[in-house]
Amino acid sequence: MTLDSRLRDVERRLAEACARSGRKREDVTVIAVTKYVSAQTAAEAVGAGVRQIGENRWPDAKDKWELLKGQAVFHYIGSLQTNKAKDVVGRFDYIHSLDRLPLAEAIQKKASALGIEVPCLIQVNVSGEESKHGLPPEQVPEFLGGLRAFPAVKPIGLMTMAPHEEDPERTRPVFRGLRELRDELNRIGLTDVPLRELSMGMSNDFEVAVEEGATWVRLGTVLVGKENREG
């Protein structure tokens, strides 16, 4: 499939998922995960109308960021080491993988030096898989309390990764669990501004995620393809 045909197919599937769940299409934002494609392919996606770029590591994102800064919004979606926060803060518009207070402290330090605030999503391990990063759901309320010590770190929502399933329907409890957690956190009012965003759903399961309330879906292969790239 060509890039244009993949974009059209994803758009059709998103619209149908929104219709099935009674949602507005404009309530779901697509993040193009470009870690497996070149800067040129990422630029072609932006030229075709993609405005959100997701990357997992700064070294892999560097050439794309330098080429496309100002043309796209950059999301850091990978696990972030505390000592790498200084490379990410100020370059990426959003961080989706906040899961510990030492990382929040490192983000705060760099953001304070730059005089900026950093919108972050708290990564939650809803499925309980040992291979997945993120906080257990029951620890999120206390974590939100701890974030008050870092005013430049702005929690705006939650992120999760579901297990890869042959039948995407089996991921539904994970996505539903994240939405219910967000709604409960908002009910008890642990943040100054309600948590809005739910970053969940990837190429294999994004339609189920949309049906369960995703506001951001992270799409790689199904949207921009996959190229043979080292690193």
Please identify the top-level CATH class: Alpha Beta
Rg from alpha-carbon coordinates = 17 Å
Question: How many domains make up the coordinates?
Answer: 1
Low-confidence stretches: none
The main sheet comes to:
8 strands, parallel
In percent, how helical is the residue content?
Answer: 25-40%
Query: Could you give the order of strands across the largest sheet?
Result: 7-6-5-4-3-2-1-8
The computed structural class is: alpha/beta
Distance between the termini: 24 Å
**CATH fold topology:** TIM Barrel
What's the average pLDDT? 96
The CATH architecture term is: Alpha-Beta Barrel
**Beta-strand proportion:** 15-25%
Helical segment count: 9
CATH superfamily: Alanine racemase
What is the β-strand count? 8
SSE order, one letter for each helix or strand: HEHEHEHEHEHEHEHEH
Shape: globular
Question: How would you portray this structure in words?
Answer:
With 231 residues, the protein is an alpha/beta fold. It has one domain: Alpha-Beta Barrel (TIM Barrel). Helix content is 39%, strand content 16%. The chain is built from 9 helices and 8 strands. It has an 8-stranded parallel beta sheet. Strand 1 (29-33), helix 2 (39-47) and strand 2 form a beta-alpha-beta unit. Helix 2 (39-47) packs across helix 3. The radius of gyration is 17 Å and the shape is globular.
